[in-house]
Amino acid sequence: MSETTLVIIKPDVVEAGNVGKVLARYEEAGLSIVAMDLRTIDGEFADRHYEEHLERDFYPNLRTFMTSGPMVPLVLRGEGSVARVRELNGATDPTKADPGTIRADFGESGPRNAVHASDSTESAAREIALWFPGL
């Protein structure tokens, strides 16, 4: 079933000049870009996006990182896009991600793990509405 999901190419990938390489991975997997932007967010926006993590120990560092520079949020569409994107991305910790995944190839550690992806169709709907209202 065709569905949409949100991906955020994080500031570390933008800074390293690897956005095109990451986008190519998704397109080569048969996913279509529905919407895309380049933007820098503030702490309030980060808090809204990561609302389920606000009280977690790791969140302050993640918030600082996500507001540190430009990133590329995008909406992808395709068959089983939520699961497919998460498979392409690899494990959240780049040091534990399978070789050839986006996080293994472009991530560093902790919040500097290259990309964010929605973890369910429900999360995708909420996140897409936040980042791309009216889509």
Shape: globular
Question: Percentage of helical residues?
Answer: 40-55%
- Low confidence ranges: none
End-to-end CA span: 19 Å
Which class best fits the helix and strand makeup? alpha+beta
Described by strand count, sense and barrel closure, the largest sheet is:
4 strands, antiparallel
**Strands across the major sheet, in which order?**
2-3-1-4
For CATH, the homologous superfamily is named as Nucleoside diphosphate kinase-like domain
> Number of helical segments?
7
CATH topology: Alpha-Beta Plaits
Cα radius of gyration in angstroms: 14 Å
CATH class: Alpha Beta
CATH architecture: 2-Layer Sandwich
Number of domains: 1
Strand content: 15-25%
Subunit structure: Homotetramer.
GO molecular function: kinase activity
InterPro entries: NDK-like_dom, NDK-like_dom_sf, Nucleoside_diP_kinase
Family: Belongs to the NDK family.
Kindly list the characteristics that best describe this protein.
Alpha-Beta Plaits; kinase activity; 135 residues; EC 2.7.4.6
